[in-house]
Amino acid sequence: MRSKLYAVIMTLSITLFGHTAYAKEWQIQMLNYGSAEQGGMIFEPAFIHAQVGDTVTFLPNHSGHNAQSYVVPEGSQQWKSALDKAYTITLDTEGVHLYYCPPHLMMGMVGMIQVGDAKNQALIDKKAPRLRSKMALKPERMDTLLNQIR
After folding, report:
1. Would 8 be classed as within a structural domain?
2. pTM of the full predicted structure?
3. What values do phi and psi take at 133, rounded to 5?
4. Contact 107, 64 (CB under 8 A)
5. What CATH number should be reported for the domain holding residue 98?
6. pLDDT greater than 80 at residue 7
7. CA-CA distances (angstroms) from residue 56 to 9, 74, 89, 96?
C-alpha cells in the first residue's frame, strides 16, 4: 500500500511540477555595443530557443534601453519593460516572441525567443516585415533572426 501511494504521489508531482524542475533561466543583455561584427544597439543573445517554463530576464547593461513585445504566441500576454530596469518574463506558451527596444528600433535593436515549436510562424512571417521597415540601420538583423526559427 505504501509503495503504491508513493508511486501515485511521484507521478502526480512529475505531472504537475516536472516542467518547472528543469526550467532554464535565460539572461539577455541590452547593450550599446556588441562585437565588431554585431555593431551597436543589440540584444545579446538576439535569438534564444527556449522551452515552456523557462524564464528570460532582460538586463539593461547600458542606460536608455527597454524591451517590448511585438508578436507573442496566442495565449500569451504582450509585455513591456520599464526603461533601464531589469525585467523577467516566464515563457508559458509555445511559439515565437518577436521583441524590440523602442528607443533603438531605428538602429536595428530587435530580438526573438522561440519557445518549443514555432506555432505562430504565419503571424511572425506577416508582422516581421512591418517591424523591419522601421529599422533604418541593420535591417538584416531581422532576416538573421527569421532564419534561426526551426
Report:
1. no
2. 0.85
3. -65, -15
4. no
5. 2.60.40.420
6. no
7. 30, 18, 5, 13
